[in-house]
Write a structure and sequence with these properties.
The N and C termini lie close together (5 Å). By secondary structure, the protein is α/β, with parallel strands linked by helices. The chain has 13 helices and 16 strands. Helix 1 crosses helix 3, helix 2 crosses helix 3 and helix 6 packs across helix 13. Strand 13 and strand 14 form a beta hairpin. It has three domains: 55 residues, Orthogonal Bundle (Arc Repressor Mutant, subunit A), CATH 1.10.10; 134 residues, ATPase, nucleotide binding domain (Nucleotidyltransferase, domain 5); 147 residues, ATPase, nucleotide binding domain (Nucleotidyltransferase, domain 5), CATH 3.30.420. It is globular. Strands 1-11-7-4-5-6 form a six-stranded mixed β-sheet, sandwiched between helices. The protein has a five-stranded mixed β-sheet with strand order 14-13-12-15-16. A three-stranded antiparallel β-sheet has the order 8-9-10, with no helix packed on it.
């Protein structure tokens, strides 16, 4: 069986020859070895050894039926990802609901489900039992072995996979240890914000060794607020974010997490006499209430200021917007984009993860596949 150690995800770029070849083959259709040599910058013998090891692990296969004759010499046999030999479980924990899914080695969703249970309203042990039951339900009837489980969560995560998250009411919860004991497979635990940034990294081609790596900044505003970016080494969290400025919300000097997370924002709004149980409810109220709309626009403006400060630090070519602040409030999103343009005077592509489901799937997939994509040969049973 795989190593039973549990750990916090690092979301590094693939660095070993096997991981680099795996990444290219996973994202492509059919590739020949010479194309892998060109794409990775590795030598022919190194690529040959890496491909052989991946084939022996059952991760890659040859397609001799697709071989095209190229004259004398050894034919170039195309390579492709083999049918998934294993499954990988991923979990994205939310305050009110959590997402559980099974993925194959290409990252395709095999089965998934939303668990409509509140992590904030249950004690951690009871909640984790619900997660374990959810994973067991999804794996029932599947013949492929489970070789790892990943968890994305709000809050702070130690290298041992211990979580402290104020919005969940968790203080030092060893979720990695519980899942590792239950399933006897490695458990990867990471904060949701770098996990979403990692999902962008995992879906992007590796840059050629001689080309600069474009930087992608992911900015998240939901149950928590934060930013992470990816470069040639992997994913890095930006923190602390810039403090907020004066506004109708009366947030001058407050930490962005306290002022602009969904709960923090709704608390600021309630101080002004407008009460809503969710962001979606406030957006609905704002259709007929100009003051509520002004507060939403204030939040969008402050988020843009915070994002601009983060962008000035890392100079990204792409900014990915993620979380309900952007997906549930289209007018606020427009305010954000306009304010960002005023404060960050550089060419930048804006991209939106449009739904909550896509956000949680991206985070769950990233933690589920992190070990496979960085150490593919260590998962071989």
């Amino acid at each position: 069986m795989p190593n039973q150690a549990h750990f916090s995800a690092s979301f590094a770029r693939p660095s070993t020859p096997a991981a680099k070849c795996m990444h290219h083959i996973r994202l492509g259709q059919q590739l020949i070895r010479n194309e892998l040599v060109e794409a990775t910058g590795l030598s022919q013998p190194t690529v040959t050894r890496a491909v052989t090891a991946l084939m022996q692990a059952g991760l890659v296969r040859e397609r001799p039926d697709l071989t095209l004759s190229s004259g004398p010499g050894r034919p170039n046999i195309p390579l492709e990802l083999a049918p998934s030999p294993w499954i990988h479980a991923g979990v994205a924990i939310g305050t009110k609901s959590s997402y559980v899914a099974l993925f194959d080695t290409k990252g395709r969703t095999l089965r998934d489900a939303m668990l409509e249970i509140s992590a904030a309203d249950l004690d951690p042990d009871t909640f984790i039992e619900h997660l374990i039951a959810g994973v067991n339900r999804l794996t029932t009837g599947l013949d492929l072995p489970l070789v790892g489980i990943g968890v994305a969560t709000s809050g702070k995560v130690t290298n041992a996979g211990v979580v402290t998250a104020s919005n969940l009411g968790w203080d030092g919860v060893d979720i990695a240890g519980r899942l590792n004991y239950q399933f006897s497979v490695p458990a990867t635990v990471a904060s949701a914000i770098p996990a979403i940034a990692a999902s962008e990294l995992q879906a992007s081609p590796l840059p050629h060794p001689e080309q600069p790596t474009p930087i992608t900044l992911t900015f998240y505003a939901d149950d928590s607020v934060g930013a992470a970016y990816s470069n040639d080494l992997g994913v890095h969290v930006i923190g602390p974010l810039a403090t907020t400025r004066g506004s109708g919300l009366d947030t001058l000097g407050m930490a962005a997490e306290d002022a602009l997370s969904t709960q923090g924002f709704l608390s600021r709004v309630s101080d002004q006499g407008i009460f809503a149980n969710s962001l979606g409810e406030l957006v609905t109220i704002a259709k007929d209430n100009e003051t509520a709309r002004e507060f939403l626009n204030d939040r969008a403006t402050l988020l843009a200021h915070t994002a601009a400060e983060a962008a000035e630090t890392v100079k990204p070519s792409t900014l990915v917007l993620s979380g309900s602040a952007f997906s549930e409030d289209p007018q606020g999103r427009s305010v954000f984009a306009s304010q960002l343009k005023k404060e960050y005077d550089a060419d930048i592509e804006l991209r939106l993860i449009p739904t909550h489901r896509e956000n949680v799937r991206a985070a769950a997939r990233a933690v589920a596949l992190d070990r496979l994509l960085n150490e593919p040969l260590t998962l071989v049973p």
